[in-house]
């Protein structure tokens, strides 16, 4: 076990600083004069070197950024050179490639001048009769630096003519001032910058850095002289400039001999491009490709030693690593300094841990400084007096859910106090972890102080984080300090002892904060600037606005200070382009805990449309990206996670703000997540190879693992999240949460507790069967085993899913296959399979349930939409005409639809979830669109209460029923009545449609159920024999059975084809209010008061009883589209049940002695078989998969006596003891026809060509009939033929038993 002593506590006190970690990222900068001069060398780097470097970076566990400065910015300028130099210096793992040829480059102007320089040069220009005005317009005073200076105005040098005038004036003044001894007498290089090209200034700055992380390519075209009248991109025309570039290259060669690639080329003419296209040019390219590859790989390997991340030795090591990130963020928060606040005295009181015990809640509005207060309170308590741990909710990937957060806290306390963590390691559920916490605190030799920021954001999933209502006070030796928004409910786990309210930060406090912010970057804010910042505090985001404006002033020297955060973003868009800023911010805003700069860069670079919009044909500019990130400043948070610097919005409220600005529609949000999921699934690869002469960029690899077997942490962290939020659930399962290698890596490197947090997050977003099965029936039951040995994951997955393999989805079965392959290749240690692996997974009836707030119970009706992720519900007696939309997974109200003036009686949603229909007691039918909260159509075709409605499968028509004794078919698009069904004499209370939309079934208060032909509106059959008004109907998905519930509490099953009653279902209590059939055509759910009874339709047996334990009737039942969930509202409670799939072909012979086989048939193509049983069931089997595919009851209780397939094997024909013959479609089990040509037991059925059949009964009656005849009239009837008989398909002869003689 990994455990340290008391001295190993990771804490942050005033006198302690931790060693700063660097992110694992290297940036290779390629710098030259411009794009054209070194086109061949840059193409070599792009096409022959970069892919190898990217592969090396991925395999060695570091990110590789590539910045071709000439491609991104064209001709090198001083501003760009300084930007590159700054980025290069900030990252000690970055590398520079500098390309020097025959050209020196154009002289430019410095980006800044010291005040004395500016004034001396200005005076000298004036004395030399130079253009002072143009010089003055080019620079502006910057008073934010420690020593005042003048900075160049970028817009002043955009015009080349104006730039030339500025250079001329500047050089004239600088030369005169230097000769007069006014400036730069000591620092000659500073003076030379007025006369140097940006390239020379840049090179000399690079050479001053030690160690110099740079590689030079020095190229010279020997014995070539440029033609002054014909400018050349490769040769220098000016002789003085030519000498300068040669001197510079000689100096580089002397100083950097081991990091110089020198190439002297001798073209035959000044047509350099001709040389590069020749064989000599190809040799040159191959040579520099080898040199670049070798040298850059060696240098990058020195900067980034190859690492193979090993799995943590224990959960304690994971917890300690997690805590380190929180401590580093604490240091960032404390770096602002000890600013005085109004609540300082109260914090001093709380810091007395020797006297203060309990739970202290620091509350306030958003952006009032609660986090700062918590961090300062942490700092006020000495590590000598208490063990301390601080936790920032949602800072990292493991700080979202309560169970994982408190487990991390407990393990860190054990590590600090040197306490055995065995009990904590065996608990994963929050209730058990909190009990462990109480024991740990009592064992500790010092008080324990726990600090949790934004505790209201901690999530409590239904898997592991449920604790119920806890009113216990905190343990005696525990002090728990938490911050929370004062408008959000808080689950503090322990009873809150005291509440400290933090007021909105005052103007003076904000001024002190921004002053300290300026000091930290060696800058200052003037009194005038501070006075303009003060009024910004009027808005609720005042503190963030003030910091953002102050950052803008320090960055640019000024700010318009208008528009708050939105105004700041608008100014950034104006500076860098709206498209560029929008693309950067939208990906940051939709990330869970931030993205790295490389990930943002690659995501945008892979979007060809975005690049075209920004006029960046090859790749998104890394320099532009860095500038945008720098401009966003305080709006972003930078946190080092998994050795990568992640960029995320700095405050939770910013996520909402940025999404509302850059991701307006849900489609844009899903599209961004889908693009990021493509990135982390390694799918953003352009398979169309670019021509050799073009430059193309391929995104950095995001494979799941490296050649050494170690995983890609970024893929593990982010792929599942973006797949989830893109709505692509098949990809979510296939590539992550139902992919064994992915699940195994997450378990071994991040812990089983974190893996379950991923499923918890999914459960708060979607209702999904596969993920629920994997988490609740496999992983949670395996926790005890996994806590002892994480290598047992494969055994647990295989064993627990093997029991349900026939019912599993392809994704779960693929997971099992992947786990078995993993076991086959496993060789680290003996793999022991625990006995628990062979226990059937626990059955979970209730998937989840939630209570509707402020709900006065009545007759609650419900409908599902959006792939059963949302419900529409009505029946609140406080407002009976209102329809509510809820997101099931999060249990959140997402919409309210108002329009009805009386109770809503029925809700039904379209198949594509684009609209829904509601009926009401106000006699209206309304059509709604989900995106609008007003009805798009209101229909008044009925003269009385509208009782129900149903939509056709193509959503083109709806059929409504009413208390006016009619049902009407209405075209959805126009609202016009197409057909009316008026034969009932009582209220029509229930409707059902067959799957082909051809037949309508209506149930009425006149004791009758009728079937109608929808095409002509005629009644074709009636299901009579009812003794009371119909209350509700249901039909199976194969249209074989209709179930009818009546007011007299009876529940009967009818044959759809014949209309006769098959059997009555018994055992339920009270009147059935709602019915629904599962899509397996076996299970029927009947809802009464508080209970749901589950029947087997085929044999009439009661399978299960689901008790909601509410004293209200259940008036609506719905089955999810995937047939996995049953949703039932009962009073204020909505319950989602798991629907266990039951194969009704698996008949239990031992339980039912009457179920033995009585007849068997084989299809002529040997692909299918059919069998009949003694209790009247016909089953069809697919012999290729050895599974029963369909079953039906011909007539319950009457044994099947013979069975036969048609000649073409398309139909199955069965006869029973009562003389009934049933014709089934062999492909789908649908009943085609039912015949009653015999009055006694049918013993023989033979198939003939031309769809003719011969049947013979026990009384000797033989009948020849048509398979598809219009009626039951036979072609021929004969008597005296005693079965069995045999007739070949041609029908030319018949072999049978002649009753006149027993021997014939």
From TrEMBL:
<dbReference type="InterPro" id="IPR001680">
    <property type="entry name" value="WD40_rpt"/>
</dbReference>
<feature type="repeat" description="WD">
    <location>
        <begin position="939"/>
        <end position="980"/>
    </location>
</feature>
<dbReference type="InterPro" id="IPR057588">
    <property type="entry name" value="NWD1/2-like_WH"/>
</dbReference>
<keyword id="KW-0853">WD repeat</keyword>
<dbReference type="Pfam" id="PF00400">
    <property type="entry name" value="WD40"/>
</dbReference>
<dbReference type="InterPro" id="IPR019775">
    <property type="entry name" value="WD40_repeat_CS"/>
</dbReference>
<feature type="domain" description="NWD1/2-like winged helix-turn-helix">
    <location>
        <begin position="546"/>
        <end position="669"/>
    </location>
</feature>
<dbReference type="Pfam" id="PF25469">
    <property type="entry name" value="WHD_NWD1"/>
</dbReference>
<dbReference type="InterPro" id="IPR015943">
    <property type="entry name" value="WD40/YVTN_repeat-like_dom_sf"/>
</dbReference>
<feature type="repeat" description="WD">
    <location>
        <begin position="897"/>
        <end position="938"/>
    </location>
</feature>
<dbReference type="InterPro" id="IPR027417">
    <property type="entry name" value="P-loop_NTPase"/>
</dbReference>
<feature type="repeat" description="WD">
    <location>
        <begin position="981"/>
        <end position="1022"/>
    </location>
</feature>
<dbReference type="InterPro" id="IPR036322">
    <property type="entry name" value="WD40_repeat_dom_sf"/>
</dbReference>
<keyword id="KW-0677">Repeat</keyword>
<protein>
    <recommendedName>
        <fullName>NWD1/2-like winged helix-turn-helix domain-containing protein</fullName>
    </recommendedName>
</protein>
<dbReference type="InterPro" id="IPR052752">
    <property type="entry name" value="NACHT-WD_repeat"/>
</dbReference>
